[in-house]
Write a structure and sequence with these properties.
The protein is mostly helical and 158 residues long. It is built from seven helices and four strands; from the N terminus they run αααββαββααα. The protein has helices spanning 2-33, 40-59, 62-65, 77-94, 105-122, 126-142, 148-157, and strands at 66-67, 70-71, 96-98, 101-103. The strands form two sheets. It has a two-stranded antiparallel sheet.
Length: 158
């Protein structure tokens, strides 16, 4: 009976990964519409991978970490911390400098934030993950350089 409960629990945790993938895909759709290299698949995979890492970080070592007095030397945040730096490495590969032009900053920032959304979903913070997804998409749409009102503000400041 305990094995059945453990299998059911893993299915529930898999829902966190699915939720992260949905959020990543939503952000990726906006990037795809803008014809960016990192689109739906990239954002979806980054979010799901980050969620998986968070789940493993939080729950993967419960059988070896719990001693008679509780936790013994296990730090569940270590894997999640490595996601942040690992995605930073991935983001660095997205940024290109050519002459005086830098491209890929928004995509790199979006990938990094998408991994944070995945970590939130993996931790079970669904509301925080979904709200952040909405904020990211709205920010990318509202602050895109093709919005005439924003260009007018920029031109007026110069």
């Amino acid at each position: 009976m305990a094995e059945t409960n453990f299998q059911l629990y893993q299915l529930i945790l898999a829902l966190r990964i699915i939720a992260a993938g949905i959020c990543g895909a939503i952000i990726g759709i906006e990037r795809l519409i803008r014809s960016k290299d990192a689109g739906i698949r990239t954002h979806c995979i980054v979010a799901m991978g980050a969620a998986l890492m968070m789940i493993v970080s939080k729950y993967g070592f419960f059988d070896t970490a719990a001693g008679e007095l509780g936790m013994r030397g296990a730090d569940g945040a270590r894997i999640a911390a490595q996601v942040v730096s690992g995605i930073g490495f991935l983001g660095a590969g997205i940024i290109f400098v050519h002459k005086n032009s830098i491209t890929g900053l928004t995509t790199a920032a979006g990938i990094w934030t998408t991994s944070g959304i995945g970590l939130a979903m993996g931790a079970g913070m669904y509301v925080l993950g979904f709200i952040t997804t909405v904020i990211v998409v709205v920010a990318q749409i509202v602050f895109h350089r093709n919005f005439h009102w924003l260009n007018a503000l920029h031109d007026r400041e110069e």
